[in-house]
């Protein structure tokens, strides 16, 4: 039995936690834009943290459950309903055979994650131990592409339903949504005033943004030597400054190396926060130390472990 796609939504893909560690071979890590939300969704349905789930972007799909299924939605609030009844995020639900999951207006955030008990691995193609969809390379997922109408996702046998809920997710993981912390680049080739102007500015997420990178529209930062340097490895959240002075924050589907100078790197704990910003949203950046970044990661991990122990 399966989950049938009636409408695919704007951009719905199968994602897990990606394929890190392959950059030396030019393989992008891909995976969930918001790894926190994907982890929480899997936790709610009893899956391993990195089990494959659906990443739903801004405007969701229309899905029909063809057997009783345990599911959970986390991340963005996209007006989800099950047979017309509102479906709460951050808790487990049981869908009955024949019920339809639909999405409505986007209320908060940009990306929701739909997990089902057992994950979506039966239908997805694996590459290097991950089924994460890489649209640029045509790898993973359903032939390396987003969902389309008529797709059928096979489901694992469903265990007995267990009610679970996670509370205050947005307070722990995403607030304040419009302020993102970063570690300034050491030895940056940008002029010294570039960092000062970056921290003082407020940017808008450009419509030209995607899973590869978020282009930021705002005051142009000063650059030197044409804004170019030797290509070096990049990380999730690397903030590059091309010759036009408009920063680019590299996201899940980023390339493995980059030659633009960097102003800094978004801290790991705030990558989910950035992933929940949508086109046109505004954001500012706050510089922190490496110790502060590590502390933020520890606090988030402590909260996650506490939630995982809940019955």
Give a brief outline of the structure.
With 311 residues, the chain is an alpha+beta fold. 16% of the residues lie in helices and 28% in strands.
Describe the overall structure.
The relative contact order is 0.17. With 311 residues, the protein is α+β, with helices and mostly antiparallel strands. It has helices spanning 35-45, 169-173, 192-200, 271-275, 290-308, and strands at 2-7, 12-15, 53-57, 62-65, 69-77, 81-82, 85-86, 92-95, 100-102, 108-116, 152-154, 179-184, 203-205, 213-217, 232-233, 238-240, 248-250, 257-258, 262-266, 282-287. The chain starts with a strand and ends with a helix. It is globular and about 60 Å long. It has a seven-stranded mixed barrel. It has a six-stranded antiparallel sheet with strand order 7-6-9-4-1-11, with no helix packed on it. The longest helix has 19 residues, at 290-308. The model has no long low-confidence stretch (mean pLDDT 93).
Features:
alpha+beta, seven-stranded mixed barrel, 311 residues, six-stranded antiparallel beta sheet, 20 strands
Question: What topology emerges from the helices and strands here?
Answer:
Elements: E1 2-7, E2 12-15, H1 35-45, E3 53-57, E4 62-65, E5 69-77, E6 81-82, E7 85-86, E8 92-95, E9 100-102, E10 108-116, E11 152-154, H2 169-173, E12 179-184, H3 192-200, E13 203-205, E14 213-217, E15 232-233, E16 238-240, E17 248-250, E18 257-258, E19 262-266, H4 271-275, E20 282-287, H5 290-308
